[in-house]
């Protein structure tokens, strides 16, 4: 059982997410998920050999936020051909998004054709603490169980599972890995549910003080899953880059809030203006050749709580969303 975080007054991500893991596994048949043991760990298949679905993706997104976020489906007005979207809210967006949901732990094993690679996200990251970000957040969690979410199309090898468990300081049979291929229904949902996390990540990259972020909510259209990885990757990115909206509530001076509203949207990037699949192809498949400032929501509102003034930046691009959701690569 997860133990409370004893290092500060902030909640334990492991403790909050543990019931979500238990319910996910208990409802696996209803959610069309597969459950198996690999190297002692519990591996949840949400789109590889088992179909999963939208509700599975919604629950996985909440798990990925360490139990500090709420994810819901609902109607949206833009783009008109795709009337449903995902709304994400957290009362502790920095810890939920950067401390848990952000895919920050690079995990790999082997080389060549049989190599495994994935980015680990979820509450287990705060146990592993393999990223300098946790020193900046000044956060450390304590628990005897860990959960991770990975965008993966294959099951991690037992050797990598043993490494993950050892790094977290737990035994392998207390480790849960949830696998969500991007092109699956669950994978598409949990990626688009990162609309708030993407905003927090860029805010951090811009140097805005994280301790000034009080609350946050975001929304993005829900794309149809792609038949292949490239199509799915393009659609999920475009849902956020050209269809995503985020509202942040911050403390501090008005000029800082206004500057953030202008710099945060994806339109501030030199690569803005084309579907992501085209940008990726032009970069010859090299993510590092793409401007990192592109990865942010299309439209942003920043409310300065000290004055009550709100500032707006960016705009939706429904034509690009429409184009992306219909194109197949």
From TrEMBL:
<keyword id="KW-0614">Plasmid</keyword>
<comment type="function">
    <text>Catalyzes the hydrolysis of methenyl-H(4)MPT(+) to 5-formyl-H(4)MPT.</text>
</comment>
<dbReference type="GO" id="GO:0006730">
    <property type="term" value="P:one-carbon metabolic process"/>
</dbReference>
<comment type="pathway">
    <text>One-carbon metabolism; formaldehyde degradation; formate from formaldehyde (H(4)MPT route): step 3/5.</text>
</comment>
<dbReference type="GO" id="GO:0005737">
    <property type="term" value="C:cytoplasm"/>
</dbReference>
<dbReference type="GO" id="GO:0046294">
    <property type="term" value="P:formaldehyde catabolic process"/>
</dbReference>
<keyword id="KW-0378">Hydrolase</keyword>
<comment type="similarity">
    <text>Belongs to the MCH family.</text>
</comment>
<dbReference type="Pfam" id="PF02289">
    <property type="entry name" value="MCH"/>
</dbReference>
<dbReference type="InterPro" id="IPR003209">
    <property type="entry name" value="METHMP_CycHdrlase"/>
</dbReference>
<protein>
    <recommendedName>
        <fullName>Methenyltetrahydromethanopterin cyclohydrolase</fullName>
        <ecNumber>3.5.4.27</ecNumber>
    </recommendedName>
</protein>
<keyword id="KW-0554">One-carbon metabolism</keyword>
<dbReference type="GO" id="GO:0018759">
    <property type="term" value="F:methenyltetrahydromethanopterin cyclohydrolase activity"/>
</dbReference>
<keyword id="KW-0963">Cytoplasm</keyword>
